[in-house]
Structures are given as structure tokens and as C-alpha cells.
Amino acid sequence: MLEAHALTCVREERTLFSELSLSVSPGELVQIAGPNGAGKTSLLRLLAGLSRPYEGEVCWQGENIEHCRDGYHQELFYLGHQAGIKHELTAYENLAFFRRMHHQGSRANLWEVLARVGLAGLEEQYAGQLSAGQKRRVALARLWLGGPRLWILDEPFTAIDKHGVKVLERLLIDHTDAGGMVLITTHQDLHLCADRARILHLAPSREDDA
Ligand SMILES: Nc1ncnc2c1ncn2[C@@H]1O[C@H](COP(=O)(O)OP(=O)(O)OP(=O)(O)O)[C@@H](O)[C@H]1O
């Protein structure tokens, strides 16, 4: 279970949010919603342990993530705005690299995974020659490698076409059905069952001092 207790986030002397608490239990998906600049990415980065809160703490299985960073990061898949793929490698080589670095227990067939994300026929294309949506699909293919229980996904649907969105929504459902946890930001409406998805609305920040 992931829990955030009374988080305050300050950027350039501006309080983006304060006293924010949330929890994500196995089988749950929480969508962070709010207008541009409300602090969604900042919140996800705090929850992923990529930056530190001004106040408050983030706990994984009851322990502050500062004290269990390695174990926490083994259980976490974080997808940020940058696709994080290497342009000089092919789509297949990128996925093989991800597996070697982060998903060593995965026995997934990489050709099948690439086909699932709609990259059949493009496996040996250099990533630098792929379109924005195809590059995003290479990054998202990691979700099919298995392993981490907690997925923190920042705008995963960016540049993805309608069919790709449906495929990814199906995967989110399967992951939560299997007891996984998802935190996601997206400006799209998600077509998931209401009983598995919750929405947390972040209000626009105020121009006050911390
Ligand atoms: N490292 C930083 N230093 C200074 N200000 C920052 C930093 N990161 C974010 N901000 C500011 O914090 C505010 C919130 O940014 P954030 O990226 O969290 O918003 P968001 O809700 O994810 O927006 P969007 O929907 O546009 O992606 C913005 O005003 C941004 O300029």
C-alpha cells in the first residue's frame, strides 16, 4: 500500500499544495486531475521518491520511502514525460535494454510485447526514426514486462492514438484486477469501472509565499 501523509509541495516560494494525504491500496487506480500547472507532475515525483516534500512523508508498506528506497524502487514503475528511450537503439533493443536493467525476472517474449503495443514490423527500426506516438509505445511496452506492483504514470496517453488508448486502458484494468496499484495523470476521461478508479482533484495553486 502507498500512503502519503500531509504533503506540502513548494516551488519557487509558491505552495502548489499542502496537507495533501492519499492512499492507494492493491487493486486501486487513482487518477490525479487538475488544470495545467496545478502540481500533478510535482505530486507524482514526490510519490515516486524523485523529489522530497517540503513537509509530510510518503510511505510504502508502512515505511517512509526514504528508509526503503531500493526495495520501493524495485516495486515501482515510473513513467515520466520523457519517454526515456535511446534513439540509437532499435525498438527491440530498447525493450531488451529495459528488461536487462529493470525487469530481470521477466520471461515475456519481446516480439509479442512489441506487437501488443502496435509496433509489429517496426521492431528493428531505430527509435530515433519513430514517430512521437511510436516512441511513447516503446516506453509503454515496459508495462507488459511485468514485475513492479505500483505504476506511477504521468500522462501515459500523450501522442497515443485511440486504439492505443483502449489497449492501455485494458492493461490498467488487468493490472488492478491482479492486485496492482496505479497512480496516473491524464487530461483524458478514463473508461474504467467507477469502483476501481478514484479521482483526486488538485486545485490551481495560489500565488502566496510558502
Ligand atoms: N523544478 C521546478 N522548479 C520551479 N518550478 C517548478 C518546478 N517544477 C514545476 N514547477 C512549477 O510548478 C507548477 C506545477 O508544475 P507541474 O508540472 O507539477 O504541473 P502539472 O499539474 O503536472 O501541469 P501539466 O498539466 O501542465 O502537466 C508549475 O507552475 C511549474 O512551473
TrEMBL record:
One Gene Ontology term of the biological-process aspect is:
cytochrome complex assembly
| Coiled-coil region | none
InterPro entries referenced in this protein's UniProt entry, alphabetically: AAA+_ATPase, ABC_transporter-like_ATP-bd, ABC_transporter-like_CS, ABC_transptr_haem_export_CcmA, P-loop_NTPase
An example Pfam family from this entry, by short name, is ABC_tran
Q: Give residue ranges for domain ABC transporter.
A: 2-210
Is ATP-binding a UniProt keyword of this protein? Answer: yes
Keywords, alphabetical: ATP-binding, Cytochrome c-type biogenesis, Membrane, Nucleotide-binding, Translocase, Transport
GO function terms (MF aspect) = ATP binding; ATP hydrolysis activity; transmembrane transporter activity
Q: Keyword Ribosomal protein on this protein? A: no
Which PANTHER family does the UniProt entry name for this protein?
ABC TRANSPORTER I FAMILY MEMBER 1 (PTHR43499:SF1)
Could you tell me which NCBIfam families the record lists for this protein? ccmA, PRK13538.1
The protein's name is Heme ABC exporter ATP-binding protein CcmA
- Native species: Oceanimonas doudoroffii
